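User: I'm writing a short report section on ligand binding and want a predicted complex to refer to. Could you take this sequence and alpha-D-ribofuranose and write out the structure as tokens? A short remark afterwards would be nice.
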Amino acid sequence: MPPKPVIIDTDPGQDDAFAILLALATPELDVLGLTTVAGNMGLAQTTDNARRIVELAGRGDTPVYAGAPRPLMRAPRPVPEIHGDTGIDGWDWAPAAQPPETGHAVDFIINTVSSHSGPVTLIALGPQTNIALALRRAPEIAAQIDRIVFMGGGFFEGGNMSPAAEYNILVDPEAARIVLGSGIPITAVPLDCTHKAPAPLGWSQTLADHGTPVMRACAGMMEFFERYGNAKYGTATRPLHDAIAVSALLWPELFDGRHCPVDIECAGELTTGMTVVDWLRQTGKPDNCLWLNACHDPAEVYARMGAALARL
Ligand code: RIB
Ligand code: CA
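Assistant: Sure. The structure tokens for the complex follow:
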């Protein structure tokens, strides 16, 4: 099989970093480029982080395009308390040697999808602002998008930024509603799935023992990333949400879920940003995504992830 062409839209974030490194380490994927968005950190920071990550992987040739500096309708909501002041705290990152590309992320998505020899898969790891803008600006590209795989949402698990809403969706619920209404095949990787795939206990030491710069950086990021979540949830380890989304694309046999109708609450006093999952199909609306809510073998997911990262 030829490698699957993908564009990764991202707001690095330690778990975004793992997802990007995993994708770059996987020959089955052809990473056409990264597009960055305001999310975990401001746009300048997420863009600089994306450059640092591709260069750490030895893939400085991977183009990075900066996108939306804020959500469609709402104020940005950076979370340095989770990801640190750089957004990828846990490692002493070398400054990026190359700047991002001069074009806009939305133009890159539209032009790349329109001109590529075959359908392109979009992997969305942050607020879906860029993808919504691309679909609004050039709705015809939907026919050339093979699938959108996004990390976001939560239904059975509730939210992680409010009782009802997960961070990526809460930051830009209007964008998520546009994406879910696009008619494009979608795989949603929500907290219902990622919370079933925590990292193995002591995994950061396993990574560090490899000794390569990538693995030492991942070990440091993992340790930093787990601090906030373990304190909040009273757990011993945390899931790398965005890396689980890439894993679900690579190894679908390790995950499970259900095709069903999903919509986004955009006006609820208490529930804005909620992914309203019609699991029992009570609304009569058409299924618009595959909603993953199970991981059969978390240990296998992280074993495969670690083996891939060790190749960089
Ligand atoms: O809720 C987890 C998601 O929000 C992840 O994508 C993380 O990077 C943050 O963006
Ligand atoms: Ca993210």
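A remark for your report: The pocket of alpha-D-ribofuranose (ligand 1) is lined by residues 11, 13, 15-16, 39-40, 125-126, 151, 160, 166-168, 241-242 (CB under 6 Å). Residues 4-309 form a domain with the Inosine-uridine Nucleoside N-ribohydrolase; Chain A fold (CATH 3.90.245.10).
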